[in-house]
Amino acid sequence: MPEKPSRAMRLGIAGPVGTGKSSLIALLCRQLSDELELGVVTNDIYTDEDARMLRAAGVLDTQRIRAVETGACPHTAIRDDITMNAIAIEDLESDFPGLDVVLIESGGDNLTATFSPALVDAQIFVLDVAGGGDVVRKGGPGIARADLLVVNKTDLAAYVGVDADLMVQQGFSARDGRPVIGLSRLDTESVTQICDWVRHTLGHYASGEHVAQDPGPMAPHSHGDVTHSH
Ligand SMILES: Nc1nc2c(ncn2[C@@H]2O[C@H](COP(=O)(O)OP(=O)(O)OP(=O)(O)O)[C@@H](O)[C@H]2O)c(=O)[nH]1
């Protein structure tokens, strides 16, 4: 058994609005909190809604769930100026020494927002079948190079006329062999798969084999009348 690392593995969960990031965090807390010491940091633009939802879900001691109110563009706080998130994580780590994993939820953003490797050790990019079958093919840094791509809500595929297996296949083609999981909270096999992925990644992190990757900058975009290309 490798020695416990000096700090928790920081695992980012990114992806467009409504794809199921908070639900995935709730699921991981429910499944893994008996075996791992977990903490959560959420990012919302003007509210602490996601943190309140997770606290209300009763999946973790409420003190272990911290909210960052990012203001403005949510990606700024996970990529360009990570200070608020870094402080929230350090507070959690000092209040709960011995945390194994801190899950950090990005504010739902556009398809190209990803975490800086200075903030997270590994990141999951979450899409859902309801966003349409073409999304994976269209690509973007998170889709192509996050440590894991999740195609979520596969239980809804038949209702929205999307072939979930094809989306997963397209994910594999876009990712040079990096992992892709088709997930539904109603499908226990897929839930086991994602929990195993977290355990496996934590094992690599703990043994020092895991190297944080930068999926790449987001596409040029506009904040009001100013155009940024990060
Ligand atoms: N059918 C189905 N619905 C799901 C699943 N996972 C999440 N949802 C639903 O999808 C909706 C959005 O989920 P959230 O977890 O709030 O999504 P989010 O990405 O955190 O949303 P933002 O924080 O607003 O970006 C909710 O109504 C969830 O109940 C799933 O596996 N299957």
TrEMBL record:
GO terms for biological process: urea catabolic process. Residues 208-230 are annotated as: Disordered. Gene3D superfamilies: P-loop containing nucleotide triphosphate hydrolases (3.40.50.300). It is found in: Cytoplasm. The keyword Chaperone applies. Its main location: cytoplasm. Keywords: Chaperone, Cytoplasm, GTP-binding, Nickel insertion, Nucleotide-binding. GTP binds at G15, P16, V17, G18, T19, G20, K21, S22. The keyword Cytoplasm applies. GO terms for molecular function: GTP binding; GTPase activity; nickel cation binding. Residues 11-166 form the CobW/HypB/UreG nucleotide-binding domain. One of its GO terms (cellular component) is cytoplasm. HAMAP family: UreG (MF_01389). Homodimer. UreD, UreF and UreG form a complex that acts as a GTP-hydrolysis-dependent molecular chaperone, activating the urease apoprotein by helping to assemble the nickel containing metallocenter of UreC. The UreE protein probably delivers the nickel. Facilitates the functional incorporation of the urease nickel metallocenter. This process requires GTP hydrolysis, probably effectuated by UreG. Belongs to the SIMIBI class G3E GTPase family. UreG subfamily. This is Urease accessory protein UreG.
